[in-house]
Write a structure and sequence with these properties.
about 280 residues; alpha/beta; Oxidized Rhodanese, domain 1; 2 domains; 4-stranded parallel beta sheet; 11 helices; about 30% helix; about 10% strand; globular
């Protein structure tokens, strides 16, 4: 069973396996249909496509939720069933952005009790660069039965984040780029800055230049620099809307450090209430 990352060679050996499901997660915030077009133009044989907004998110409530709120567990389960994901299926998710979007699917499945899910290390770019097979036909998935078993300890809500402010034993980590964390620029959300007390660990620092994740040792050293000996239960990651933070959580898990928690609403939910404080600059 693959539970964090899988190599292109490992996936290639199982393209014909009926109890495997390959999910294409390519997506761009700048052009939300780009991933679907890319999928139709070519994808890993047998892969099905999932759209971040339509398949991995719930309805946005202006002034209350973030940009990509989690769907209801039962709704998410029905969507997974239509993708051919059952409780006994090994899932492999991939994208073309270093696992940033694929890790959202990885996290959601684990949140709902499904451990047999991994992200393709190096993703679509590595698959293509190695000359591996590609197809353009869109195959209908064979529906499977997916019964969700939510793990409430995998996530925290905005009330919890507010309650831990000032507690030295808790580490709240902002996964966005450093300039967004510092409030120097904000290309997506209407308010710049970060949640007071949060530390910064940009999620793209967990991968190398070619989009593959750092080694386990490299990841351990990376997290230890900022988090020290803080354990998983006391470590919470967030980002702009609960997507890219999942790449940090995946890297943290792959490093053997345990299951850190996610604040799914993230920055876009935090600033939905103007009464919540905002901090700028470095910590």
């Amino acid at each position: 069973m693959y539970t964090t990352l899988i190599s292109t060679e490992g996936l290639a050996q199982h393209l014909e396996s009926r109890d495997w499901a390959v999910i294409d997660c390519r997506f761009s915030l700048a052009d939300t249909e780009a991933g679907r077009r890319a999928y139709r133009n070519g994808h890993i044989p047998g892969a099905r496509y999932v759209h971040l907004d339509e398949g991995l998110s719930g309805p946005v409530v202006p002034g209350k939720t973030g940009r990509h709120p989690l769907p209801n567990p039962d709704v998410a389960a029905m969507r997974f069933e239509r993708l051919g994901i059952g409780n006994d299926v090994q899932v492999v998710a991939y994208d073309d952005s270093g696992g940033m979007i694929a890790s959202r699917l990885w996290w959601m499945l684990r949140w709902l009790g499904h451990d047999a899910v991994a992200v393709l290390d190096g993703g679509w770019p590595r698959w293509i660069s190695e000359g591996r097979p590609v197809e353009t036909v869109v195959q209908e998935a064979e529906p499977r039965s997916f019964i969700p078993h939510p793990r409430p300890g995998f996530l925290v809500d905005v009330g919890f984040v507010q309650s831990i402010q000032g507690q030295p034993g808790m580490k709240l980590v902002d996964s966005r780029a450093a300039e967004r964390y510092r409030g120097e620029t904000e290309p997506i959300d209407p308010v710049a800055g970060h949640i007071p007390g949060a530390l910064n660990m940009p999620n793209d620092q967990t991968v190398g230049q070619e989009g593959a994740f750092l080694s386990k040792t490299g990841l351990q050293e990376h997290f230890k620099k900022v988090l020290g000996d803080t354990d998983a239960e006391h470590t919470i990651f967030y980002c702009g809307s609960g997507v890219s933070a999942c790449r940090n959580i995946l890297a943290y898990k792959h490093a053997g450090l345990g299951d850190a928690r996610l604040y799914p609403g993230s920055w876009s939910e935090w600033i939905a209430d103007p009464e919540r404080e905002v901090e700028r600059g470095s910590r």
